[in-house]
Design goal:
The structure is a homodimer of 84-residue chains.
Chain A lengths: L1 E8 L6 H9 L8 E14 L7 H16 L5 E8 L2
Antiparallel strand pairs in A: 1-2, 1-3
Chain lengths: 84, 84
C-alpha cells in the first residue's frame, strides 16, 4: 500500500528554515506571507511479506514515524494509507 | 488564506535521504518498505495587503514555489489554498 506521511514542527518550536523563507519572500516581491512552517513530506510503499490488516499497517507506520521518520519531541506527524 | 505546499523529488532524481531511510527500516524490524521519497511540506499564511482573488493567489503561490520554495529542475510541487 502507499503511505504518505506529513511531518510539521510542533507549535512553539522555532523553525529557522521557515523564518528564513518568510524573510526572503518580500525581497522577491511577495507581501503578506506569514506563519511559514517547513516540515517533511514522505511517500513510501509498505507491503510487508505475508500482508497485514489495515489496522496493523497503521500501527506499523505509526511506529516508523515515532522511531525513525519524525522526531516526536519537536515534530508532529500525520499519515494516510492508500490501498494499491 | 492558508496555503499548503507539497514538494517531492522528481521521478528519476536520486533521493539520498529516502535511500538512507529505506536502508535503516529493516534494522528496526520493518520489512517490506520500498520507494521511500522524502520531500518538503510547507504551510504558510498569504494575506497580501488589499486582498487578492483566488485566481491571483494561485498565480502568486505558484510563483513563490518556482522562485523560492521548490527547485523546479529536480522537484515537483503541488499546493492547495484554504480560505480563512
Amino acid at each position: 500500500m502507499k503511505v504518505r506521511v506529513t511531518i510539521t514542527p510542533k507549535q512553539g518550536i522555532l523553525d529557522p528554515q521557515g523564518v528564513t523563507v518568510e524573510r526572503a519572500l518580500p525581497a522577491l516581491g511577495f507581501q503578506g506571507v506569514t506563519d511559514v512552517r517547513i516540515g517533511k513530506h514522505i511517500e513510501l510503499r509498505y507491503d510487508p511479506p505475508g500482508g497485514v490488516s489495515a489496522e496493523q499497517a497503521r500501527t506499523d507506520v505509526d511506529d516508523m514515524c515515532r522511531r525513525l521518520l519524525a522526531n516526536p519531541i519537536i515534530e508532529d506527524y500525520t499519515f494516510e494509507l492508500d490501498e494499491g
